[in-house]
Backbone:
């Protein structure tokens, strides 16, 4: 049974500029329908998996606009292999991956493996590549044996089109196996749940991709399903891979009465497991968590109300899934405290310090880093391979911005002057309005041209991205 729910309010955060008159408004700029809701009538389904074999993951990804069944409706979406919830790519550290990529859209696109420590040049994770309409390209990735286990994702990264294509449905997960190596023996091989959070705005029978407004009504799905049922036994421990694979919006995820025990953040295993009641997950971020089944009955996996600042948006509470705890109770397992080895960049010598400042115009339509809009022909920052740098990221605006760097993860040292506990490295972290964050980043293994940007893709597409040259 489908119902309609209210959307969010606040700052538009548009991905395109200008305003059409009512008589000339194209379909793409119309306001979306109210968000869809539904009762839990079907179990959560994991996306299909493509798994590496003998050190190689070989697959084909076809990009096309296609009608899919979504939330009880047949809607036009932008798909990978004809699916709104495309295959999860599953591999191990040290593997290679070959992707035969075919673009059947009427616009350029490309492929980015978000958060993965891999070469940013050539046929690898090169976001400067442009795969034109009707073109084919073979991506080739060689991952290091030091690649951290956890959850990553893949999505398009063509400048000015990233938000539209990702919002249209082009996003899937990558899982790097190996978290089991850090778990105590009784917890190895436990049930895993992919919880891929993806939202869409619906106009007529199509997902809206142009003139996106972050504050517009949006329907939130898990693995492409509307309020699916997640089954767990009372006391059972499961591993949930929470990933925000949408273009723009925030989630504040909670299962009231049950804690999330974080074992990895942004594909990086923590050195100490920590427990929280809720997790704010900006677009692009991931958390791997252990969840223990509550007492028998049903409860709701929620995204709680979240305010991204007076120039930002106020996102309402919504139900993501219904958790059904049933069956013979299990004795809750002892959860680990220490986990992966600690990597503390605070102990490293700093080779250079940089300041990165996020700003925007008053209308919230143009976005800048160090008062410059993105230009792929200009190098904005240079770093030396094999060194550690300390960056101060300033947010001189009245809304949250999400700081993201390609190729190498970073350690958050402080936020607004408050030292942060080092649980491990990350790749997508929020900078508060009118605040600042100090990070340290190690440039390891790979030289070449890459980027840093705000991972609110509306903001990235409207200029909030810079070129980083890593030199040998």
Residues:
């Amino acid at each position: 049974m489908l119902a309609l729910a209210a959307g969010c309010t606040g700052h538009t955060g548009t991905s395109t500029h200008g305003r059409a008159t009512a008589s000339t408004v194209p379909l793409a700029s119309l306001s979306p329908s109210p968000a869809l809701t539904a009762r839990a009538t079907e179990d959560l389904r994991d996306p299909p998996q493509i798994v590496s074999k003998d050190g190689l993951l070989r697959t084909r990804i076809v990009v096309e606009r296609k009608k899919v069944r979504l939330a009880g409706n047949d809607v036009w979406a932008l798909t990978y292999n004809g699916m709104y919830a495309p295959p999860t790519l599953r591999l191990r550290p040290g593997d290679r991956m070959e992707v035969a990529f075919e673009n059947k859209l009427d616009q350029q696109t490309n492929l980015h493996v978000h958060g993965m420590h891999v070469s940013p040049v050539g046929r690898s994770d090169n976001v400067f590549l442009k795969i034109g309409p009707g073109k084919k390209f073979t991506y080739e990735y060689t991952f290091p044996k030091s690649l951290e286990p956890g959850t990553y994702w893949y999505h398009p990264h063509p400048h000015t089109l990233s938000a539209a294509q990702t919002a249209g449905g082009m996003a899937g997960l990558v899982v790097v196996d190996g978290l089991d190596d850090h778990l105590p023996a009784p917890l190895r091989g436990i049930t895993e749940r992919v919880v891929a959070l993806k939202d869409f705005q619906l106009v007529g029978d199509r997902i809206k991709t142009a003139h996106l407004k972050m504050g517009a009504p949006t329907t939130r799905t898990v693995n492409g399903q509307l309020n699916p049922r997640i089954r767990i036994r009372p006391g059972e421990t499961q591993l949930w891979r929470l990933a925000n694979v949408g273009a723009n919006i925030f989630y504040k995820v909670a299962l009231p009465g049950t804690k999330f025990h974080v074992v990895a953040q942004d594909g990086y295993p923590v050195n100490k497991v920590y427990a929280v009641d809720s997790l704010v997950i900006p677009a692009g971020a991931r958390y791997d968590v252990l969840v223990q089944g509550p007492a028998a009955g049903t409860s709701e996996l929620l995204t709680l109300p979240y305010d991204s600042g007076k120039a930002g948006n106020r996102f309402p509470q919504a139900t993501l899934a219904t958790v059904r705890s049933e069956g013979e109770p299990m004795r809750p397992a002892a959860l680990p405290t220490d986990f992966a080895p600690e990597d503390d960049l605070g102990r490293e010598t700093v080779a250079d310090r940089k300041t990165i400042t996020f700003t925007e115009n008053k209308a919230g339509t143009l976005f800048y880093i160090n008062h410059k809009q993105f230009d792929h022909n200009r190098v904005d920052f240079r770093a030396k391979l094999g060194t550690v740098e300390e960056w101060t990221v300033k947010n001189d605006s009245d809304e949250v911005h999400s700081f993201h760097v390609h190729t190498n993860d970073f350690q958050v040292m402080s936020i607004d002057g408050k030292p942060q506990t080092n649980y491990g490295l990350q790749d997508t972290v929020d900078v508060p309005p009118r605040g600042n964050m100090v990070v340290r980043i190690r440039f390891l293994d790979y030289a070449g041209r890459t980027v840093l940007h705000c991972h609110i893709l509306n903001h990235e597409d409207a200029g909030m991205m810079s070129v980083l040259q890593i030199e040998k």
Q: What stands out?
A: Residues 121 and 448 are 6 Å apart (CA to CA). The chain has a mean pLDDT of 94. The chain has two helices and 38 strands.
